[in-house]
Amino acid sequence: MGVRVSIAGLASAVANQGAIGTISSIGLGDFEDAKNDYENVSREALENEIGKARALTDGILAVNFMGVLSNVEDLIPAAIRAGIMVIIFGAGIPTKLPALAPDPEVNLVPIISSARVAELISRTWDRRFDRIPDAFILEGPLAGGHLGFTLEQLDNVDDFSLEVLLPQVLEAVKPFEDKHGRSIPIIVAGGIYTGGDIARMMEMGASGVQMGTRFVVTEECDVSQEFKQRFLDATKEDIVIIKSPVGLPGRAIRNKLLQDLEAGVKIKLNCPYQCLTACKIATARYCIAKALTDSWAGDVDDGLMFCGSNVFRVDTILTVKELIDELMGELAEA
Fold first, then answer.
1. Are 250 and 146 in contact (CB under 8 A)?
2. Which class would CATH give 8-222+314-333?
3. What tens digit of pLDDT does each residue of 192-205 get?
4. Range(s) for CATH 3.20.20.70 in the chain?
5. What are the pLDDT digits (tens) for 162-216?
6. Whole-model pTM?
7. What is the secondary structure of 32-85 as a DSSP string?
8. Three-state DSSP class for 219?
């Protein structure tokens, strides 16, 4: 949902329905200006995006940050100054996050993929900051985009399913809940498609869910119509696992770009932003920031489209209200 997929339009619509609308912090601002002043352009663009969303909703907004962003330590305080009270942090272990957001009223929500990382973050924060996470997002192997699993683990997804991971995480955080006298809600993500899925996870102890793929094909989502149509047209066979230039596996829709890469076609590469510290520029075969931006703008042949494992089930464009009403109805029925 990064690089302009989930920004003010979608986030505000979600917040207006009583859920938490999440703004992605990466890939904002004028692309040409960012080549010369990436940090300032990115910060001002994030502040502007938060302002646009806040003008459209009085609901709860969050901002998602990738730990591998080269300017993440500049963006997080900027978002808090702009009034954001929920900070979601993925693509890295946020050992220093409480120092960037010392106000206890600001909710800090790391994204994890294992009980081991949940325990590590909780123990580190407890020891260094006398603080524990306000929630965890447990992202399983069926999620879209970058994944916190090895290729070998993704070949055996049943061994790392949410049904397997969730009880382990609940057990791992319990000592820290007991010590601090409050719960650490676990929000699950990856492969959640219906209200029945939500009910099943909550019966197992989850406090809620995070969803991405179904919200791409909403009227309010900020991507191009070509992007949404490719989601609608996707089949199960179109879903592939790729190796990203940042060194992580990712789930995406096969298109001309990925076919060219599979065939060994050389793609012109430059690095105008140096936006990701983990990007392996020396060996990268394409710029992931440019590829994601291209697909957002409508070039779905030469861009990159991340997706969840259930994208092939999407068959219609709904409003955010229609989608959430459907999910809540199914949840109540379940």
1. yes
2. alpha beta
3. 999 999 999 999 99
4. 8-222+314-333
5. 999 999 999 999 999 999 999 999 999 999 999 999 999 999 999 999 999 999 9
6. 0.94
7. HHHHH-HHHHHHHHHHHHHHHHHHH-SS-EEEEEETTBTTHHHHHHHHHHTT--
8. coil
